[in-house]
Amino acid sequence: MIGIIFGPPGSGKGTQAARLEKEMRIHHLSTGDILRGEVAKGSGLGQEVGRIMAAGDLVPDDLIVDVVRARLPEAEEGAGALLDGFPRTEAQARALDAMLHDEGHKVDFVVALNVPEKLLVDRLLHRAQVEGRTDDTRDVIAERMREYHKLTEAVLDHYRKQGIKISHVEGTGSPDEVFDRVHAALSGISSR
Ligand code: ADP
User: CATH for 2-173?
Assistant: First the structure.
């Protein structure tokens, strides 16, 4: 099973993905976490992407596609993988389709979290104080939102056109409330 958790920055993808990982025993693959790990290690990749991420821009497609290609086979073992933060452009979505096609797999479900922009910004500014993520400043948040609208939203159309089920879930309220909604939206799919 391959799932995608989709939504703008601050929509709670990582929080919900961690819960789904436990519940569905599906591997949570977060490209943001992987890249932050590389930056923290100071690896070649980390040095290449650090400044891009700090500015709120997307790292180049070929680079992130290579990262996912290297990790996907292991993540798919067992019950499958839940992708968080990928694909973020239509080119990435096409590259993912090709990778999965080669293995006889496909995207089985997409969960899209909807949260009003004002609340997203509040959450990210709050996270800046709690976690100290360097890309959670007002200017950088604004740039990440722009990138989301300019490049990432199109990913939903990509899957819609393919007839893949997209479950739209209200991402407001507590993490527990959102999880109940995500769970209800996926109950038909996971029992298939
Ligand atoms: P958020 O969803 O809160 O913006 P993430 O942790 O998913 O944060 O990603 C943080 C940053 O990592 C992005 O702003 C971007 O610079 C980079 N990044 C993560 N995933 C991708 C991707 N699929 N394509 C391009 N850049 C990515």
Answer: 3.40.50.300
Task: Annotate 99-133 with DSSP letters as a single string.
Answer: HHHHTT----EEEEEE--HHHHHHHHHHHHHHH--
- Testing ligand 1's pocket by substitution, the residue of 6, 58, 71 carrying the most ligand atoms inside 8 A of its CB is 58
Q: What is the pTM of this model?
A: 0.94
Distant-in-sequence, close-in-space partners of 147: CB < 8 Å, separation ≥ 6? 56, 57, 58
Within 10 angstroms of residue 120's Cβ, the number of other Cβ atoms is 21
Query: pLDDT by residue for the chain (192 residues), tens digit each?
Result: 999 999 999 999 999 999 999 999 999 999 999 999 999 999 999 999 999 999 999 999 999 999 999 999 999 888 899 999 999 999 999 999 999 998 899 999 999 999 999 999 999 999 999 998 889 999 999 999 999 999 999 999 999 999 998 999 999 999 999 999 999 999 877 544
